[in-house]
Specification:
about 240 residues; about 35% helix; globular
Length: about 240
């Protein structure tokens, strides 16, 4: 079995040139049985529209084999109304997700829709702001339409980030001091993209979702039932 990811920059594989940035796709292997392969097809800045329009979906779909898992996480870029060629309103976003899932099913693969990862945006009173507006619910609706399972990463990641609070959650995202990382000499305040700790934590929440689905979705995972049973706000790997 191979696990395939399609999605955006929160999933994309990063190399040393952008260290310490990582995507969830490259951290999922921490939770997998030996021999399970991950193919990360995600690309920076892509939406459900542009991922297909630019040929990335066609290349990924050609790699699918019967019994493979396909994890699908978009939303960050679909919601950008000022992005020509990328924007999809919630209804179109749901249709696009359902189309990806349906085409994967036709190839014999098992698609799993994943609602978009929360952004780290706290208000002056220390409350985490809601991310992505109607798009998480549109993703859930697409899963129902396609007859595919859905992992609610929006909710799980929000609960984790809220529990950590403003200060501690900085370690999950690309919030960097100046003069430490060669790729970011001036530092960075990026509350969307992830560093290694965030990629590992949020990929773990996805793994927990797969574990709860059971059957073929659970089969590739390391047998860590106590870890997967932990509520997101008490995720024990941090």
């Amino acid at each position: 079995m191979t696990i395939h990811w399609i999605g955006d920059s929160t999933v994309q594989y990063n190399d040393i040139t952008t260290w310490p940035q990582q995507g969830m796709g490259q951290a999922l292997g921490l939770y997998l049985q030996p021999g399970v392969m991950v193919e990360d097809h995600a690309r920076n800045g892509r939406s459900t529209v542009s991922f297909r329009a630019e040929g990335y979906w066609q290349a990924a779909a050609a790699r699918l084999r019967p019994g493979d898992l396909l994890l699908i996480q978009f939303g960050h870029n679909d919601e950008k109304a000022d992005s020509p060629g990328g924007y999809a309103d919630p209804a179109q976003y749901a249709q696009n997700l359902a189309a990806y899932a349906g085409e994967a099913q036709a190839a014999g693969a098992l698609p799993v829709l994943v609602t978009p990862l929360t952004r780290r945006r706290f208000d002056p009173d220390g409350r985490l702001q809601h991310s992505h507006g109607p798009y998480p619910e549109a993703c859930r609706r697409a899963a129902r339409s396609a007859g595919a399972p859905c992992i609610d990463l929006t909710d799980a990641s929000r609960r984790l980030v809220e529990a950590l609070g403003d200060a501690r959650s900085r370690a999950l995202y690309m919030v960097l001091p100046a003069g430490v990382y060669p790729a970011w000499p001036d530092g960075l305040e990026d509350n969307t993209h992830l560093r290694a700790a965030g990629a590992a934590a949020f990929a773990g929440l996805v793994a927990a979702g797969l574990w709860r689905l059971g059957g073929a979705y659970r089969a590739p995972l390391l047998p860590l039932p106590d870890l997967y049973a932990a509520p997101p706000e008490r995720w024990p790997i941090l």
